[in-house]
Write a structure and sequence with these properties.
about 280 residues; mainly alpha; 12 helices; about 70% helix; elongated
């Protein structure tokens, strides 16, 4: 996870996700609206390659759809459409695949595409459009539609899965509070030499599972904005019990307190690294 905040052209996560929904909408007007917003983003700053590729392909399909609806060749001739589709598809393959180029020596487009799960025929179509005859319009239309669907799985679905609702901080607080309460209760039970029941074990496992599920859905931006502020609230990483607080001059936390938070801190480290 980066130590510095990332500057993005969208005003909020809600705007970002709204544009994604527009680009994949069955309604032509909504798709055109999504493309317009992406163009505005592009004027503000650099945008991710997958967003740019999606917008280019969706815009191309929208131009074609409008031409078919009006049944007019004044908008674009078939030859113009073929060239425009080819350019959009070539740029789609190049921009996505180039992200995988690493090391001193350039690797082939085909090998890089295979690494990210891009269908090989996209690469073959790119080669044909660049070096051979431009493919037919039906082939290009099908390729554009399938490329948009592939981008939906490769990029957009992952963003949706890791987007949290507006009450993100409340969800985090509830999950962390449940874990903290469960571990504190368990520690008190052990100190009084009481045997923990199966219900105690089940509650502990459930609290850990809830925390792990939350982390799996948490976007990295939400870590800085929501998770860290919750963790440093009193009762969590700032213990309520005086005996668990760090003492001057060594300022070390009590071993039992560190043991309580070993699971979530290890989970955070495994998910986002030590930075």
């Amino acid at each position: 996870m980066s130590r510095f905040p990332k500057v993005v052209p969208w005003a909020s996560t809600a705007e970002y996700m709204d544009v994604g929904e527009c680009l994949f909408s069955p309604d032509l007007a909504q798709r055109k609206r999504g493309v317009t917003v992406v163009k505005a983003w592009r004027a503000r700053s650099r945008i991710p390659a997958a967003i740019e590729a999606t917008a280019n392909l969706v815009e191309m399909a929208a131009i074609d759809e409008e031409a078919q609806q009006t049944q007019s060749s004044h908008i674009c001739s078939d030859q113009q459409l073929r060239h425009m589709y080819t350019m959009a598809l070539v740029r789609f393959v190049n921009t996505i695949v180039d992200l995988e180029q690493r090391g001193l020596y350039a690797q082939s487009v085909a090998s890089l595409a295979a690494r990210i799960g891009m269908p090989a025929w996209f690469v073959e179509l790119r080669h044909a459009g660049t070096h051979d005859h431009i493919p037919s319009l039906p082939v290009l239309r099908s390729a554009c539609a399938q490329a948009v669907l592939w981008l939906g799985d490769y990029y957009w679905s992952r963003q949706t899965a890791r987007t949290m609702p507006e009450d993100t901080q409340q969800q985090i607080r509830q999950a962390v509070a449940r874990y903290a309460t469960t571990t504190a209760t368990a520690a008190a039970g052990l100190e009084s030499a009481k045997l923990r029941s199966d219900a105690d074990h089940e509650e502990m496992n459930s609290a850990k599972a809830g925390l792990a599920d939350l982390v799996a859905r948490l976007h990295s931006d939400a870590v800085r904005l929501h998770l860290v502020p919750v963790l440093v609230e009193q009762g969590f990483l700032v213990p309520d019990e005086k005996k668990l607080r760090a003492k001057f001059p060594d300022c070390r936390l009590a071993p039992e307190f560190i043991a309580r938070w070993e699971f979530p801190l290890g989970l955070f480290c495994d998910t986002w690294g030590r930075s």
